[in-house]
């Protein structure tokens, strides 16, 4: 299956290309959720549904859209939205002369310009997603093999806001059932039902991570050019005033007083082609080597050190600026001294809660959102 939300393949679709439409989470959800019946049909046969080719704009991409930070945020939102409806694998199409490629390994002449080797914003989307699905320490040991399930947050689901809960469970040894007398066969049930049946008793899903994506458009005045992209499409229209920010208060089953680590996908604006980073980490445009943040902590993989403390009743509060992605990770999911944090987002690890929606604004440039984690994960990743 192939999916491209926009296209340069013909004049009619060419004139409908817009970066703000690509960044619109509602449009993305409508585009991706239409495949739910195909996902279910594949599941019945015991196979995963795979998006075999995809990217932002078909027929090679569109500079000024595909090579911007807005497209990077779209890429993260797309992958996690797809996972939440059960699409387990997505293959991004790249190419030597493609304007949607995440990097340019060698310079080349293109459309009356000479492009240089370099890293584009889409590269950082993939790197951020690698952090989303990386194993965490579980029960004092390595997290290798941990299964992650992705669920969309119902109260973080609008045109400019997207949110996801990432649940972890221990790995399943096998997806086959044993025949009487030996041998094995695929059980006469869906693949997901088989996974649930073979999940070890008592291993409830545990909230491990949260992802919040502010998909609102903010066109800044920095990071407009990138020598690996076409200069003719560098931004010329900018957002007025100061960059808005939102404060999110998320009710979780995490224990009060514990710290959640924070990883940010950030750039000067939606229209940025450069100055993109993941918590200060950048990549050398010629070698691809990691360039750690100057304020990186020891053992933090080069990332800037940032944590937030879980508040009363498991509430986590985090500020996010317009056009930014944030990942919250909780390593310590051991019991809270025998008590449950509760608090609207559910009681204890694996609890349930109801989304609460938006909760008004604090002044013209800031908003406060109240969210709750809901136990309804669908998509599964094996690491």
From TrEMBL:
Residues 175-203 are annotated as: Disordered. Pfam families: Glyco_hydro_79C. Residues 204-327 form the Beta-glucuronidase C-terminal domain. InterPro entries: GH (IPR017853), GH79_Enzymes (IPR052974), GlcAase_C (IPR031728). This is Beta-glucuronidase C-terminal domain-containing protein.
